[in-house]
Amino acid sequence: MKPSHMLLFAGSALSLFVAAAPAGAQASDEPATRADDEIIVSGSRIQRSGFDAPTPTTVIGEAELRQGNRPSIGEVLNDMPSFRGTQTPATSTGNTSSGTAQADLRSLGASRTLTLLNGHRFNGAADLNTVPQALIERVDVVTGGASAAWGSGAVAGVVNIILKDDLTGLQGGIDGGISSRGDAQRYGANLAWGTDFADSRGHFMIGADFLQDKGAFDRKSRPNMEGGIFPRADGQLVLTRDVNYTIINNGGSILALTAAPYNLVFNPDGSVGPFPLGSETAGQFTVGGGGQNIYDYVAVTSPYKRANVFARASYEFSDAATLWVQGSYNRMWSDFGFFPETPIVVISQDNAFLTPTARDQLADAGVTYPFILGRILDDVGPTHYLGYHYVRRNLEGAIGLDGDLGGGWSYNAYYDHGELRNNQSLYNQRIPARFNSAVDSVLVSGVPTCRINADADPANDDAACVAINLFGNGNISPEAIDYAFGAGQAITTSKLDAAGASIQGQAFSTWAGPVDVAFGTDFRWEKYTTNYVDPLSEAGALATLNYSATNGKFDVKEVFGEINVPLLDIEGAAKLEVNGAARYSDYSTSGGIWSWKTGSTLRLVDDLLLRAVYSRDIRSPSISEYFTSRGTNIGNVADPYRGNAVQANVVSYVGGNPDLTPEVSHTLTLGGSYSPGFAPGLQLSVDYYEIEITNVIVTLLAQDVLNTCYAATPGDPTCGGLIVRAGDGSIASISRTYRNLAEYKTRGLDIEASYRKQVGPGTLSLRALATHVFELLIDDGVQTTDRAGIVGGETAFGTPKWRVTGSVSYQTGDFGVDLRARYVDGGIYSTQIGPNGQPIENNDIASRTYIDLGLQFKATEDFTFFANVNNLFDRDPPLIVYNNPNYDQIGRYFSIGAKAKF
Model confidence over 701-729: pLDDT tens digits? Predict the structure, then answer.
């Protein structure tokens, strides 16, 4: 057993499944009771057999890590039914979190799942891409509240990534992938080396990997990727394909001052033509035709590059002291188009760029001056519209000391320091003050000139102003772009310092056996610093995103203890144990708070284990929730203050709140597992869970803010300042700052089954995992919505009621095949209500089943080829407006590679 894992409890591969049903633990063909096969899992601080674990713990082992050839551990977790897809490179589209990957157990949000590395907190937990996948031995998933054992954040559970600390020799691999549409190309390589030294008292290993994903950009190449909600003239909402705007166009849509469209546009050359309306038109939207939607410009998946290096050294001075030190470097970077800006500007009759032909055409169509021009700016700068660039770099180092104190007692201590530096820019943004001046131009001696430089008041002059031609497409000069557009940039650093020490052993014995105890202390310091903000953002001069300088820090000091007491032990008949744990946490921001748990296990005739756990868990506000700078989102909303009229391209802002207090959760888990002696290799597990969280920290969707505000303050259209409105009453922006709201509650069932048998020259393994969500109630303080079964992707916390993953694997010494099925339940798209008071007409989304196939072939003992096809039958996604992490958007995907050991 590695000393660095001694804080965890051990159990055999077979007994671990009986407690938690992990097929991944069963990598050996030898009898599972052998000590060599012991698997260390992380459900408790006490070293106890997984055979008697009170908290369900699932192991994602070699088989699950291999299946699908996923390029990151985040995507591996997304295949598990108890997880909901979050922001990974395969689900990211156009946003400032693109490329990050976090674990989201129970669909309660990634911040409510605690992620550890070898049992320790680490700064890279905010992005699982920081962990080199080739060095991962397995992942232990504790599917229950565990704050008493592991601290804040373990509300939904714990993900503990276990590395190959004992790697010896040289190993490496290469792989690549491509979708059946010829995009989303991926290339990767990894190399690792480990060796013993000092007569095997010391060990050193180092590993590195690189991955490039080129992304997928053509939404038209995939069915249903251009979906949208269309509000018909009678107020009925309908989900349909290719919903486009009538009030904005990439050549310029011509509107009256009342915003009523003339159904005219400027052609690319600046002449006037009819708006290419679709099959059905109502107000701001038309179905089909030749119009545009800003989501047409958003990538299916965003590109990225990733590089990781990890090194670890350990030295055993004696049984009482093993020193280890490790360090890692991660860099992730990308540059891609975001989405176009959509300015609405007033055009005067004497505008310098209105040609005589265009004036005549406007007159013939009855257009009066001034009129409004709605423009999609997809012809600005090198990316042709808003471009997003980021470089995220994480440096981390840790040192620790583990040892055996004798008499059944052991200890461990560690310190970790990590720094994430994020350099991000959003370029090609309008500078409204300059843009508006440049748009309002007149002819002076036949030369287009900004009006401010042509009037008689020199106080208005701006010698740098360059007139902008917005009529048509591609007619904005480079000089005008340089004047009226700019980039926002911010460089921030988030730091984590974590330290802890614990002692565990057997304090005394009862009539039924020894009493196990563990106790210790943890410390954590988190700090967020803004190193740089561009001058335009500091002046609030940009149209879409002005970065702001945000700085803050907090710390927490904790003590904890855990005890396991056997009460009954009748060999071969019954064994009863009770378990308890408590932790006191003192936060510099909000003071002290307790978390605790109590549980018990009852084993009957060796085959059946019954378990129960009840816990009080906490989640303190994260550093980003406390102090993050303002972020921007754009989307469509239905304004209840204006009869649920749909307004397009509403800007909403999110940001930190230093007055937040911790969330408090109560979790009940009841279940059991069965491993019948009459059927060797068969293992079953069923667990019911119920989680209730109060004082929830959340930022609402823009639509939720509007609905909540209207229900609470129907007479105040600004909702106390959360909603900013323009002079005509339309929404200018919505504030969605983090707040403590009411409560979340979820209930569900985890089911797992496995069978393993020697068949011919190889081993046949079958495994099925299923999660059923009975309800996921989100109470925002005004109304409660059950998000279970809302699967459209536009609803926060929306999750399928059923997810099932089943696999069949056959492995011999030279050949292996994996066949996996992933079932994702259907549901409704949204609970959105139209202006007519009715839900969406075609609101149902059908379930999807995806089939994945994997093959492995050993050319020699140390050289293996592999190939995979994910989504073999190319199942289409449901209609998608923007993004849907519940379903596969890529389609059929091929990957191949090779691994070698030396």
Answer: 888 888 888 888 888 888 878 899 988 88
* pLDDT value, residue 101: 80
DSSP annotation of 621 = P
How would you write 863-893 as a 3-class SS string?
Answer: EEEEEEEECCCCCCCCCCCCCCCCCCCCCCE
Q: In what order do the strands lie in the sheet with 136-142?
A: 57-60, 136-142, 157-163, 113-117
For the ranges 96-105, 744-753, 889-898, the lowest mean pLDDT is seen at 96-105
Cα gap 23→681, rounded to integer Å: 10
Task: Determine whether 36 is exposed, middle or buried from the number of CB atoms within 10 Å of its CB (0-12, 13-18, 19+).
Answer: exposed
Tokens for 325, please give them.
């030190």
Residue whose structure tokens are 């020199």: 458
SS3 798: coil
Q: Write out the DSSP string of 295-346.
A: GGGS-SB--EEEEEEEEEEEEEEETTEEEEEEEEEEEEEEEEE---B--EEE
CA dihedral 722, 728, 730, 731 (to 10 degrees): -30
Question: How many CA atoms are closer than 13 Å to the CA of 758, on its beta-carbon side?
Answer: 6
Q: How many CB atoms lie within 10 A of CB 739?
A: 16
- Report the distance separating Cα 440 and Cα 353, nearest Å: 10
CA-based nearest residue to 47, from 96, 94, 86, 10: 10
Residue 489, Cβ neighbours under 10 Å: how many? 18
Percent of the chain with pLDDT over 90: 65
3-class SS at 221?
helix
> How many CB atoms sit inside 10 A of residue 844's CB?
12
Mean pLDDT of the chain: 88
The pLDDT tens digits for 26-52 are: 333 332 333 333 344 445 666 544 434
pLDDT of residue 307: 96
Q: Is the CB of residue 101 less than 8 Å from the CB of residue 87?
A: yes
435 secondary structure, DSSP code: H
CB 805 within 8 A of CB 769: yes
Helix ranges (H only) for 634-782 are 702-712
Q: Which two tokens stand for residue 241?
A: 């394909």
Rounded Cα distance, 517 and 564, in Å: 6
**Residues counted in the chain:** 902
In the chain, the amino acid numbered 204 is: F
For the stretch 154-199, pLDDT in tens is 999 999 999 998 899 999 999 999 999 999 999 999 999 999 999 9
Q: Where are the alpha helices (DSSP H) in 490-631?
A: 535-538, 623-627
The answer, yes or no, to whether residue 422 has pLDDT greater than 70, is yes
List, in order of start, the domains of the chain with CATH numbers: 3-216+303-336+390-425+491-621+657-701+736-901 (2.40.170.20)
Q: How confident is the model at residue 87 (pLDDT cuts 50, 70, 90)?
A: low
- Reduced 3-state DSSP string for 177-196: EEECCCCCCEEEEEEEEEEE
Write the CB contacts of 741 (distance below 8 Å, at least 6 apart in sequence): 696, 697, 698, 700, 779, 780, 781
